[in-house]
Amino acid sequence: MRLGIDIGGTKTDAVAVDESGALAERIRLPTGFGHAAVVETAVAAVSRLGELTGLAPGGFQSIGVGIPGMVDATSGHVAHAVNLGLDRLELGGMLAGRLGVGVRVENDVKAAALGASHLLGLTGTVAFLNLGTGMAAGIVVDGRLWRGSTGIAGEIGHLPVDPDGPLCACGQRGCLETLASGSGIARQWPTDDPFPVRALYAAAERGDPAARAIAARLAVGIAAAVRVLVLTVDPATVVIGGGLSHLGERLLGEVHEVLHDWERTSPFLASLDLPGRVRLVPEGSPVAALGAALVGEN
């Protein structure tokens, strides 16, 4: 049995996975803020799953953690996970010291890519496009994560598409993330709703022209991300996940519409069948935690 933990900004999702890769147990805990609290959250998740499965930490075949930020998968070092209050944290080493067993640590989007590929039974090259507070992708090739030479592979949210666009958190201007992410929507459509894209779509349905324009730019930005992924790594499938994916078939339909429009004017893009490669992650699936469980052996 493998154990996987997805440490999010507010909630931690943890799963135990049996030898066939099927979900055996799942728990959710509030995530603590700051170095010590994040470590305690992970330890609590292991303890609780140990109670449910009857296994001590050393009884699991592997333990993996997915977490936001810059992650060195070799050392288990995490940096710049600002939503968790982490500047630098030797998470892998600290958890190993507390649990008495080795722990693999991976970026949460990369872990989710592995989990989505496994859950959907996908083979070959797969891209997971995470649309959350930011935008990033994880890439899986023949069942294994492709991290690139420094681990930065998939950070397509920081590809500039408009040199005169808004300043991105990365310091560049007009990045894809400023158009097609939760933070990008919140900037363009200020609201008290904790899920700004929900308020945006509600206003668009009421006929608000500004909301409709922003929603259209969102679809174009996501379609552009799909196009970048296909033209760079040629995945057979691009799986869309993250908070914005909860919009479901409506969002997918609008992205497909943009891709079909591009095909009408570009025989080259038409030959790539971009719409046919895109699908949504199943609603409610713990793909990041599942991927974290698999990261322990990846």
What can you see in these coordinates?
The chain is an alpha/beta fold and 298 residues long. It has two domains: 111 residues, Nucleotidyltransferase, domain 5, CATH 3.30.420.40; 160 residues, ATPase, nucleotide binding domain (Nucleotidyltransferase, domain 5). Helices cover 40% and strands 22% of the residues. The strands form three sheets. Strands 3-2-1-4-8 form a five-stranded mixed β-sheet. A five-stranded mixed β-sheet has the order 11-10-9-12-13, with helices on both faces. Helix 3 packs across helix 10, helix 5 packs across helix 6 and helix 6 crosses helix 7.
Q: Keywords, please?
A:
13 strands; Nucleotidyltransferase, domain 5; 298 residues; alpha/beta; 2 domains; 10 helices; globular; 5-stranded mixed beta sheet
Chain-wise SSE layout:
Layout: E1 2-7, E2 11-17, E3 23-30, H1 35-53, E4 62-67, E5 70-72, E6 77-81, E7 86-89, H2 91-99, E8 104-107, H3 108-119, E9 125-131, E10 135-141, E11 144-145, H4 182-188, H5 196-205, H6 209-233, E12 237-241, H7 249-265, H8 267-272, H9 274-277, E13 278-280, H10 287-295
Parallel strand pairs: 1-4, 4-8, 9-12, 12-13
Antiparallel strand pairs: 1-2, 2-3, 5-6, 6-7, 9-10, 10-11
Helix pairs in contact: 3-10, 5-6, 6-7
